[in-house]
Amino acid sequence: TPLSRIRNFSIVAHIDHGKSTLADRLIQLTGTVAERDMKDQLLDAMDIERERGITIKANTVRIDYPAKDGNTYVLNLIDTPGHVDFAYEVARSMQAVEGSLLVVDATQGVEAQTLANVYTAIDADHEIVPVLNKVDLPASDPDRVREQIEDVIGIDASEACLISAKTGVGIPDVLEAIVNKLPPPDEGDADKPLKAMLVDSKYDQYLGVIVIVRVIDGTLKKGDRIRMMKTGGTYDVDDVGVYRPAMTAVESLGPGEIGYLNASIKQVRDTRVGDTITHEKKPCETALPGFKPSVPVVFCGLFPVDANDFEDMRDAIEKLALNDASFTYEMETSAALGFGFRCGFLGLLHLEVIRDRLEREYGIELITTAPSVIYHLYTKDGERRDLHNPADMPDMTTVGHIEEPRIKATIMVPDEYLGDVLKLCQERRGLQMDLTYVGGRAMAVYDLPLNEVVFDFYDRLKSVTKGYASFDYEMIGYREDNLVKMSILVNDEPVDALAMMVHRDRAEMRGRAMCEKLKELIPRHMFKIPIQAAIGAKVIARETLSAMRKDVTAKCYGGDASRKKKLLEKQKAGKKKMRQFGKVEIPQEAFISALKMD
Ligand code: GDP
Ligand code: MG
């Protein structure tokens, strides 16, 4: 295909604005998939993606489009993830294409991730075609949203496509706009040595690692011996092909084209996104500027509820890590929870997705400890050590000062909820950086400690704004603060899995809340149980769970044996989800619930 007939693009949008639905329509209208194979959100393959309606891993698809000008064009769509945790994946897939469709829900308008994603596209020098979606809904207000796009983002929206990805209205205009408004790929040279970008990779159970590539110069074909310029690995190419969206082998991939290669690569870790792929024999001279590796920022312990599941869990975690190089793990032992893993994630959604997959796909019940960030501990001599787990916090007397990671959070919210949002940010030790208003919406920018955001900030934000706020963040660096380790003692024994780092000024409040919660969550025992929060040896909050007074079956007025049996069985089932700490049993859900602040 000549370059002039290729268009490579991505779709950027805030979550739920209709990106996946639009992709489906584009695929459907061009007959890329037979009607009977069409199902909603074709590109969102994983169950969790479908259920939550989010796109996690970027996917690609090649569409042949006979345009009105009489030519057939090859359209390569890269579907990017929409969630904040995967901002990095968005940035890297943007480098592989020349243009973006900016999808904005015409009933909602510009949201925080619309901004974040469109700025990423602008940074990648994309041509941008605005698309206003959901015009089938009575609440849609294309004129207002058009104005907003121009005011807030600063791009011309006068010729925006008005569409309904749901009903199919306006989709032909989108296809024409892709061909007419987006540029073809930059001039490449098929005769030059191979230079291709490694865009993404994923693990396929049967085929091993599949690498998504974008060819810049040269030609990639089956049988080639390739070298990854950064990692130095060399491989024999077994297959090259394109996604239509099913994998379809092709003879070769030339300049401007996007497709996959399969070269018996064992692990996703052996493929570095942003690496340059070239031929071993006749390599290209200069590598592409690489991307930074994604680094986990949120850590937590994952432990099997049933200690017998540990080996299965290890297998499952290794398998998941094969497909996700941004997920890290190492073995951890906890006095309270036994053997498990300390895992690192790009963010909270990433954490939830991995946890869900372990439970659902591998059938392992898990206890999750409090998510934590990486603290920088400095000794009095100024030497730095990274703390991934509050349980490893050394004695305070050996620590000079502690720095914590901070983020710049952008929150967009209708005016009427602004007060609640500002209050929430204040409570979480936020510093206001900016506050502006655009078309009935406020945009608040805060400098916040990541530590205060990782647990339930997003949930709280959604609840105080009835779901109307949108949120995006980026890391901005480390700053010193007055941080301490708070321990929780149940029946005078510290429960390491509940230890956390907190700001000194908020310790009493957090400690009190934790003790009160635990008092509700831990069932009564035959004896009195003190529940305490402490900093070092100093107790800062205390509750007492009084002893059980009566036999639990007493309320089943004597005679009814079957009810009595049922109750005992129910208790037994409930027990499975308990953990024994000394003489006390703590239900598994306590580890997460105790940390929620409301
Ligand atoms: P994404 O998160 O941007 O990929 O959004 P989805 O494509 O998953 O769409 C989010 C929700 O909006 C789904 O429930 C869709 O069915 C719905 N949706 C998408 N496009 C339209 C549209 O044009 N009209 C209406 N009424 N609903 C739509
Ligand atoms: Mg989607």
TrEMBL record:
What taxonomic classification does the UniProt entry list for its organism? Answer: Bacteria, Pseudomonadati, Pseudomonadota, Alphaproteobacteria, Rhodobacterales
Organism domain of life: Bacteria
CDD domains on file: EF4_II, EF4_III, LepA, lepA_C
- Gene Ontology MF annotations: GTP binding; GTPase activity; guanosine tetraphosphate binding; ribosome binding; translation elongation factor activity
Subcellular localization(s) per the UniProt record:
Cell membrane
Q: Which family does it belong to?
A: Belongs to the TRAFAC class translation factor GTPase superfamily. Classic translation factor GTPase family. LepA subfamily.
Question: Mind listing the UniProt keywords for this protein, alphabetically?
Answer: Cell membrane, GTP-binding, Hydrolase, Membrane, Nucleotide-binding, Protein biosynthesis
Q: How does it sit in the membrane?
A: Peripheral membrane protein
Which GO CC annotations does the UniProt entry carry? plasma membrane
Record's InterPro entries?
EF-4, EFG_II, EFG_III/V, EFG_V-like, EFTu-like_2, G_TR_CS, LepA_C_sf, LepA_CTD
- Record SMART domains: EFG_C
Query: From what organism does this protein derive?
Result: Allosediminivita pacifica
Q: Which reaction does it catalyse?
A: GTP + H2O = GDP + phosphate + H(+)
Residues holding GTP: 16-21, 133-136
The protein depicted here goes by the name Elongation factor 4
HAMAP family according to UniProt: LepA
- Return the Gene3D superfamilies for the record: 3.30.70.240, Elongation factor 4, C-terminal domain, Elongation Factor G (Translational Gtpase), domain 3, P-loop containing nucleotide triphosphate hydrolases, Translation factors
Question: According to its UniProt record, what is one Pfam family this protein matches?
Answer: GTP_EFTU_D2
Q: Write down the EC number.
A: 3.6.5.n1
Question: Known PANTHER family for this protein?
Answer: TRANSLATION FACTOR GUF1 HOMOLOG, CHLOROPLASTIC (PTHR43512:SF4), TRANSLATION FACTOR GUF1-RELATED (PTHR43512)
Q: What does this protein do?
A: Required for accurate and efficient protein synthesis under certain stress conditions. May act as a fidelity factor of the translation reaction, by catalyzing a one-codon backward translocation of tRNAs on improperly translocated ribosomes. Back-translocation proceeds from a post-translocation (POST) complex to a pre-translocation (PRE) complex, thus giving elongation factor G a second chance to translocate the tRNAs correctly. Binds to ribosomes in a GTP-dependent manner.
**GO terms, biological process:** positive regulation of translation
Please list the residue ranges annotated as the Tr-type G domain: 4-186
Q: Does the keyword Protein biosynthesis apply?
A: yes
Asked whether the keyword Membrane is assigned, the reply is yes
